[in-house]
Amino acid sequence: MESLGGDAISNVILASMIDLKLSGRIDVPETWRKYMMSIRSSDVNPGAPSDSLKNGQLLSSLYNWCTNVGEFELHYQDSHWVRARIAEFGNVQPTRDVVRLAIRFHSLYVAWRGYRILTSMVSQMAIYQTVARITPLSLKTVASTSRGDRKLFEMIETFDDRLVSDNRQYYDKEEFHREINKIVPTPYQVDADYFPTCNHWVQFCARDHQVVTELITVAQEMAPFMTAHGSTFWEQLEIVAAEENLQPLMEAYRQLCEYFHKGVPFDELFEYYTLVSKISQEIKRFGDHIELEALRAQSAALHPLQTIDSISKAQVQSIKDQDESQLDEIAVFLLRGKANLVMNYAEEFLQEKRLGPVDKFIPHDRARRKQIEHIAFLLSDVMSTDYIIDIERVVHQIGFDVYHSSLPTVIKHKVSQFTNFLQEEIKERTATKAEKSHKGSKPARETLIEWDDDLSAALGSMKLIKPLANQLKAAKKDFKTASQGPEALTHEKCIEQFNLSVKMALDDYENSHIQPTFDFPLHENPEIWQAILRTTKRELGAIHQSNADILIKILSRIQRIVKNIPVFDRIYYTLERVKFNDRKWILRNVGNQWKANERRVEDHWKVNKQKMDEAEFSALNEIYMKIINNSKAKVISYETWRKKILPIFAVLPTDLVNVLGDIFADQSKGFLLNRLKPQYANFLTTQLHIRLRKPNPPKPNTDEKTSKELLLEELEQEVSSRRRSLEEAHLRLDQEAVAREFTQEMNRDGLIT
User: Given 46, 601, 668, 677, which residue has the most CB atoms within 10 angstroms?
Assistant: First the structure.
């Protein structure tokens, strides 16, 4: 490593820092003393050029990172953040002492990574032990979960055999550690960030698994802040919990926060297992109680003359047997809703305490129904990307904006989990055949299907728009099938069906995109919309009204970005593709039309006195001038446009942005269509006309030729009548292809971050 330069060593240290924080907030001192304390400024050779090590800056930066940075801070960061972290190291030089420090810090990371694998394993073990018995994994499931890693395969198989299927519980610390060592003898050698979670295991306790794991995740992040306010903080929350029947969940959250009060403690695996086991059992009992109360309430509705207490177990069981899946869904909704309420209450009280002395916690109103519906609509709309915008970048932008907001951590976690779940579901359904068949191309999911299997099932009802050639080929095949056999349709009926199929194929082509696209946005599919709305109510229904407004504002901004980027790309495509003299002509005519529009807007202001419109129009005028100024060179830069124009362009109201986009489209369409004439002619020949030839050659000496020609004539008329719309669709697809080339070359994670 001494042969590396200072920048390379800084990057190695930064990579270890980032990987280390996947463990969440950690209790540093013990492991720091073991791995790092032999590195002191007094140990450094006085003549060494490493100023940053000599004055302790690098060592101090690493220690502060380990103690003060939580896992959530790592997500949704950008290159500026990375540069800022490296700058904190100071002037790093590749001296012997710096190299030794880098090696020791990497050893610290390796130790914590191994421990993280063990803690993620024993927490699963503790939760699964609330179930009487879990059936063993099949070898196929073990293989798919281990993803070709032989060491992981053996670990998962042993874990399933000894600790899950046999439901072994441990009360003796030494026996516990002996068993863990048999499963994972060398955790630091495991090539994984966490111990794998298997859908098969989770489905036996999905209700409780989600609640316990989420309480653990949020508690790790928030514990140092929660416990800093002493016992009175929890006493106030417990009063509210008693009033709202939340005690078991509030007590579980308090115990976890107290355990993580300095971060995740190192080498306390048995204590952690014992705590999670205790909490899991309590939450299971509470969940069962909630389910029983829901059953009794439903039974009371069916037997109005009986009180809830007088309803027999047989009556309750009868209702449960009739529709167990629906009752399970109700129980999950209620338990997770209460857990969400606990975490939101705790953070809201914490925020109040930070603002000044507060003696009593009084919960405020939760989000209104219209707010929840608005959030659900915005989430489904921004995740319905039919343009070339990668859904990963949409999710990153949402996470980035939410993280940098004042929203409570639990809401940030909820939104991140929700959007990641949608992303993974959509990516699986829009993957091409090549992507699906390519071995190892499918990444491991971060979210489990059991997080919301109803939403997963609903998303399965969405259909993708098939390519034009595929649809025409299928129509031709259907024509041939329908016209043959004992149940053959009349020739006229075959023609009618074929025409209908072609029209549908042309409709789809006019609305198609170069990437796989759903036939409707998510919120326009009734089944999917109801599923997304249910999930939004469950996950975000517990948030404060003011926090709901903040989230709506964030998602509305991202919605504008998602809608506006295609307009931005079309304008850039217009000016980049045409000849330089044609570009000047287009800009001049856009300017003339723009001035006419400006006069109309000014007249509109005088009549309606809409001052906000005036401010927005001024911003749009600024964008127009930036476009002019950045289009003077013969070669225009996409990167420059994104830096100078997109940040303002992306956040303006979409209707206003479309005004500018339409003006450019009107003035440039003729140039662009003329440029694409050869491509379009080739498209008509190879993709359309060849597909519309007669399905079968006419038989000689029959009148079949006439009917066949009628079919061909109708199709030719259909294509001719759609000539303009097909040309524009072809133009749009070419623009998307060019835009994708530019965007894929750019090194960024979000949409404008």
Answer: 668
